[in-house]
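Ticket 4471: requesting a sanity check on a complex prediction with zinc ion. Repro inputs:
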Amino acid sequence: MRYIDMKEFHTVTTKQTMRMKTLLIACMSAAMMTGCATESTTQSGAVGADRKQFMIVSEEDAQRAGSAQYAQLKQQAAARGALNSDKKQYDRLVAIANNIIPQTAVFRSDALSWKWEISLFNSDEINAFCMPGGKIGVYSGLINKLKLTDDEIAVVMGHEIAHALREHSREQMSQALGQQAIFAGLSILTGMNATQLDVLQQAATVGLTLPHSRKDEREADRIGLELAARAGFNPRAGISVWNKMLAADGSGPPQFLSTHPAPESRIQDMEALMPIVMPLYEDTIKNKGHRNHR
Ligand SMILES: [Zn+2]
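Returned structure tokens:
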């Protein structure tokens, strides 16, 4: 799930532009020398997410771009009094996130040292996201319109966090940059021009603003269910939250669903994962004692 208005994301700063210039030269050199660059961002977990990913943008650059956009979104929301203005709901989100974040180590231990942040945006939108490096955003419309339980919020949050763990945005930036580099061709080696710098900015924008691919969504569903289950939230909520989204407003599914896998097939996939994730949930509950769910 992710849809961020392009209007809200302007261009990167001049300093970043210079960094990107360096980046593009480095990327082109690497791509030309090695042909391609693949890596695995995470361990596969119990759910088995182990696809190799094409990466030519560095993790550091992706996190920097994500942090810049996150800061801008927070600033804009704060200016209209719409940032973390509902303390009760904000505290609820923090409590859920604090249970989930330690579980990320199952997939990648370095995530524990990320500078995690969570923000509640007061907005009618049914949306949530987690940007590179653990910058979580939840729109109040998601919680209020769908009347989500803690379990359901946890499954959505787990899904969004999974996108960040798997670095889907960095992958999208890399793909965008790779495509643009083909157009730019060898002229890149003879010097940069304004158009090529625009191309780099566009790649970062694409990675942060376009909807995730279907393949990424399925991966995020798998990892997200495991994160929620290990954190002691009932993963069956993944199915109920999808049914609620489909019924949202009676005006059809939210906009971001239009590019996502068919909800019916996602629900089927989640059902198939229950024998794997339910025991993880049950173990956590047994060890921690019962959680008070809403
Ligand atoms: Zn998603």
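Notes from triage: The mean pLDDT is 81. Leaving this open until the requester confirms.
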